[in-house]
Amino acid sequence: MNFTVGKQNISFEPERLLIAGYTSKDQEQLKKHIEELQVELGVEPPPTIPMIYDLSPELLTTKSEITVVKNDTSGEAEVLIADINGEWYVGLGSDHTDRKLESVSVQKSKQVCLKPISQELWPLSEIENHWDEIELKSWVTHDNEKVLYQSGKLNEFMEPNELVNIIKERDYYSPRAVIFCGTLPLLTDAFLYGEQFHAQLYDPIRDRAIHLNYTVQLLKDAEEEYQHG
Fold it and tell me: Which InterPro entries would you find in this protein's record (predicted)?
């Protein structure tokens, strides 16, 4: 995979993908997110916080289109950190998830969807001192209307060092890992299964942004084909 850091190009093949869930500092917001999942999807509350989901690194993609089975999947904007040659970098990703399968197994619901990520990265060292000020937003294009879906700052999440320490303590860590650091609560009343997903990571101190945009295409329904065959 090829990435850009400023004017520099970096080639990097991740060897592990970890999705961290329930990483909010705000326990009330965290409780709200857990209730959203339980009420809407029947997802049981997590046995421990944060949760760490170990997924296939082959799911990571910088392509601008993904394909899914049925219109039951949705994206979630997440800041990510990547261990590249012993240095940490920050990027933007979407933990695209199958919401039907999520009520059966959260890990399986994440494993069946590709994870779009940005090609642009920032050195973590450049934002560590103002991590809390970085802004994260997402939009979903639903029925041809672009809807603001998530909005907040990184002060709502654990800082990277704290999260990495937890991952190491639980024996999940590997070199060349990509770690998704958690997502924001929804601004809508329910999950939106849209045609396009947009996200932005904005650094107000340096006045720069990382963008992520991708479309979602539905695969031909095999069950429907069988019923009419």
Answer: DUF2848
Per DSSP, the three-state class of 225 is helix
Q: Which residues pair with 198 in a beta bridge?
A: 139, 213
Provide the phi-psi class of 207: left if phi over 0, else alpha when psi is between -120 and 50, else beta.
Answer: left
Helix or strand holding residue 224 (H, E): helix 222-228
CATH number of the domain to which 97 belongs = 3.90.850.10
pLDDT tens-digit profile, the chain (229 residues): 999 999 999 999 999 999 998 888 776 777 777 787 787 778 788 888 889 999 999 999 999 999 999 999 999 999 999 999 999 999 999 999 999 999 899 999 999 999 999 999 999 999 999 999 999 999 999 888 999 999 999 999 999 999 999 999 999 999 999 999 999 989 998 899 999 999 999 999 999 999 999 999 999 887 655 555 4
User: Helix, strand, or coil here: 77?
Assistant: strand
- Number of continuous H segments (helices) and E segments (strands) in the chain: 5, 17
Structural domain that includes position 178: 2-228
Q: d(Cα 199, Cα 187) in Å, to the nearest integer? A: 14
Q: How many domains does the chain have?
A: 1
Nearest Cα to Cα of residue 213 among 98, 135, 120? 120
